[in-house]
Specification:
The protein is built from no helices and 44 strands. By secondary structure, it is an all-beta fold. The protein has a domain at 337-411.
């Protein structure tokens, strides 16, 4: 049936063949719309459905409204302006285009889909590519193809295969394959990416994990953070445990508990760890402050280093100043302008312009322009250029040696 210049009414439970409708299409519940032999069913005006309906042919209209039930488009669906289904679900088997989409329950898209704006109260699923300006979903989003959007805001959870998004905000959990989120990512629960990811700022209330080599700006995680490969960042702040299994390059790191890096860590700013910091290869930073233990194959720090517990290196640590805490334990040489070993701390080789061993501290070999040994300090060998001060009951295994020049720093 082809209707020219008139509105078309479809009775309850009927099946109607249509071609082009010059006016509006009004359908009661449980209807089927099929083609009368035309390439598609085209409605010039608004298509209204009181309840469930099936569109068996390609379908296009100016506006589409479905009051409740389920609207199934077995082929393509094109809405030039707005699709509105306040208390209904919509499923499109073919391609889908609309300017604005507002679905109260579930929106299932099996073909390539495009919209300027989408609002879905329940679940949004897309099997192929989905491109939209802004997307808001109250429940769950699952996208198995490329998901491209200016912004995605979801109250529940998200599972995306490949992303190209400007802004992402999710109240629950996020799982991403790979791609880019150029702006900010805000997640209330858990964030997981399995492949390489480019991102702006990442804020996660719970846990976060990067499965592939990733690069971004600031990272702020309330609980645990794990990067399975290389990571480039600006600032990394984690409340609990943080791990980078590959190489880390960034600005600053602040971790409340344990921080570990499988390979080298290069920072332009400060490393600050409340508990234990482990670097598999070389550590480079502007400054370092570790409350518990610090270990690395070698370390070069431009400014100050403070370690409360133990410090362990193979090739040594070089910094402008090194301050080891009370009863600290150092394995590996220390090099710097000033090195201080706290009360009853232990160290091995120290080479610095100024060396201070507080009361009861111990060292194997000390070389400095100025050397100060506190009461009860014990040193195997002492070499100094200008000044040597010995406390009471200080023990030096071999006679102190005055030298004309400081030994060179090997790092």
């Amino acid at each position: 049936m082809s209707a020219q210049g008139q509105n078309v009414h479809v009775p309850h439970g009927s099946r109607m063949l249509l071609g082009r409708v010059e006016g509006d299409l009004d359908a009661e519940r449980d209807v089927v719309i099929a083609s009368d032999g035309s390439a598609s069913v085209s409605v010039k005006g608004t298509a209204r459905f009181e309840g469930s309906a099936t569109l068996e042919a390609p379908f296009d209209c100016e506006r589409l409204k479905c009051e409740d039930g389920r609207l199934l488009a077995r082929q393509s669906l094109a809405v030039r302006e707005e699709l509105r289904a306040d208390d209904a679900s919509v499923e499109v088997v073919g391609s889908f285009t609309a300017r604005r989409v507002d679905v109260g329950r579930t929106l299932l898209l099996h073909g390539d889909s495009t919209a300027e704006r989408m609002e879905v109260g329940g679940t949004l699923e897309a099997d192929r590519s989905l491109s939209a300006g802004a997307v808001e979903v109250g429940g769950t989003v699952v996208a198995r193809g490329t998901f491209k959007a200016g912004s995605l805001e979801v109250g529940g959870k998200v599972d995306l295969a490949h992303v190209d998004i400007e802004e992402l905000e999710v109240g629950g959990a996020v799982a991403v394959g790979d791609g880019s989120v150029r702006g900010s990512i805000e997640v209330g629960g858990q964030f997981v990416s399995s492949g390489p990811l480019l991102f702006g700022k990442l804020t996660v209330g719970g846990r976060a994990r990067f499965g592939g080599a990733s690069q971004g700006s600031d990272i702020e995680v309330g609980g645990q953070f794990h990067a399975e490969a290389d990571l480039v960042f600006h600032d990394l702040e984690v409340g609990g445990i943080a791990e980078i299994r590959g190489e880390g390059k960034g600005g600053t790191v602040q971790v409340g508990g344990l921080f570990s890096v499988g390979r080298s860590l290069t920072l332009t700013g400060r490393l600050r760890v409340g508990g234990k910091a482990e670097v598999g290869e070389r550590l480079t930073a502007e400054s370092a402050e570790v409350g518990g233990e610090l270990s690395a194959r070698s370390a070069i720090v431009q400014g100050n280093v403070e370690v409360g517990g133990s410090l362990r290196t193979e090739s040594g640590l070089r910094a402008r100043s090194v301050r080891m805490g009370r009863r600290s334990h150092t394995v590996g040489p220390l090099y710097g302008d000033r090195v201080e070993i706290g009360r009853k701390g232990r160290a091995e080789v120290i080479v610095a312009r100024i060396v201070v061993l507080e009361d009861g501290a111990e060292a194997t070999d000390v070389s400095g322009e100025e050397v100060q040994l506190g009461d009860g300090a014990k040193v195997g060998r002492v070499r100094y250029v200008r000044d040597l001060r010995l406390g009471r009951k200080t023990t030096v295994s071999s006679p102190p040696e005055r030298i004309p020049l400081m030994p060179s720093f090997p790092l």
